Amino acid sequence: MSASAAILDTPSETPSLRQQAVLDAVLSLIVEGGDPLTMDAVARRASCSKETLYKWFGDRDGLLTATVRWQASRVHAGRTEIDALDAATLRKNLRDFAESWLSVIASPTSVALNRIAVAHAGSRKSNLGAIVLANGRFAIGERVKPVLEAGRAAGLLAFDDTEAAFRTFFGLVGRDIQIRLLLGDALPLDAADIGREAAHAVAQFLALYGRATP
Amino acid sequence: MSASAAILDTPSETPSLRQQAVLDAVLSLIVEGGDPLTMDAVARRASCSKETLYKWFGDRDGLLTATVRWQASRVHAGRTEIDALDAATLRKNLRDFAESWLSVIASPTSVALNRIAVAHAGSRKSNLGAIVLANGRFAIGERVKPVLEAGRAAGLLAFDDTEAAFRTFFGLVGRDIQIRLLLGDALPLDAADIGREAAHAVAQFLALYGRATP
DNA sequence: GCCGAACCGTACCGTACAGTACGGCTTAGC
DNA sequence: GCTAAGCCGTACTGTACGGTACGGTTCGGC
Fold it and tell me: CATH number of B3-74: 1.10.10.60, 1.20.1250.20, 3.40.50.1370, 3.10.20.30?
């Protein structure tokens, strides 16, 4: 990768406003799908020259990487405060996580980006898959696990392995949704559905890991 | 698609031995991954001419479709006999399903094929994703659901919606495994792990849906 | 042994797309 | 107002790959 592209090598660097506009153009093209994502199409959509694309992002891969990071940087929600954890708060927290996670994986942007990352993971080189995982599955894990542990500390949950408990939570929430969407299944899922699914998943999770309140 | 390629248009047509060899060559190339799958590479690996490929499979897409179908045709296991269903048999049946499903989604072939299908689902045209779904997620569903219903008939399980119950089963078994593998996470998962995970998932499923044995 | 069909290997064509070069426009600094 | 930097638009290059054409070989039917 050329030295001039180093500006986006590290995730900490924030793209300039103009660069953000370019990345948004990439996102819109990705979400629209259909025709494959070409540098020409990006330049046209973003009203910039290809030369600029290459100067800023190095190559096509760098552009993709920057796009994935850019999208990821917008997803991170604020930390949850966990004090005074009673049963109702725990349930609400978990339901919020479930809902927001379902909203993410059901969004066209997430589906399209995951498709790119999955396809990319097949051809060795770069690490789009790793970035998506780090900002998706693992990021939500790191945010949910403290809540689970707080629930355990408050005597509301019982488990040995936090990671295992989270993976159960993840499975109960996600079920077959993500793979079906990735494979192109037209799974209708509006906000009401998501709310219902989230509540159902949390109820099941609590049935498995909840401690009977004394 | 040209008329001469109609031989593989319908899933019922079985490819000839030579054609099977070609499809196996495609599979081996897909699993190896790395460089993108080109018709030249297939012809070379299968020791056949590109002309033959196009005569048999119509175009690149037809070849991919035939490959996915060919792999799918090998996965279908025999039907499970469900009579005399006691708690132990039910548990064993479910564990078998869970194990075989985990073995499938953890296999390099499945991962590689799913990657192709996911990538394909982004660009409209053909239906690789649909084929994979039909022979994966939905096929296992159609095989598990009768077992669940037999369990309910025997008074061992309690649920209203068979589909919902199966989706819970699916989620408990799969958890984050498939998406992590698709995204290139090196998730170590040997036979022993699979057995343990399957048993764990079934135990959780029974905890949720099992009826206390009288 | 002869014929035709199927098929292999190779050469070939057209196109799409990554990456580069460059002329012209805009804007900032002085 | 002049210069230089940054960027847009467009034109260009190289190449990889999907798809086609064709001569040579094998093989089954007669």
Answer: 1.10.10.60
